[in-house]
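Input structure tokens:
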């Protein structure tokens, strides 16, 4: 089986010869990949927050943990979209 996934790595040359390092960016994702990844993380975060609501079954500690997980997934989705 062969994989048809393409990744692009770009190297940006420095403009000043006195600089000690080159700037290298990581792989770039296509727009579709960013949208799907962001939506998946955001959906998981909303689901976790929904499980932490007051009327959901479970202990108070478990609900607080789910709320924290939900917030982490939502923050992760925001970072996923911007990076």
């Amino acid at each position: 089986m062969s994989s048809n996934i393409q990744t692009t790595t770009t190297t940006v040359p420095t403009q000043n010869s006195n600089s000690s390092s080159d700037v290298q960016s990581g792989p770039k994702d296509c727009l579709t990949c960013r949208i799907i990844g962001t939506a998946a993380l955001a959906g998981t975060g909303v689901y976790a927050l929904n499980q932490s609501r007051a009327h959901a079954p479970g202990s108070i500690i478990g609900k607080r943990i789910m709320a924290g997980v939900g917030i982490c997934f939502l923050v992760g989705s925001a970072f996923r979209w911007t990076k």
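The longest strand covers residues 11-12. The beta strands are 11-12, 23-24.
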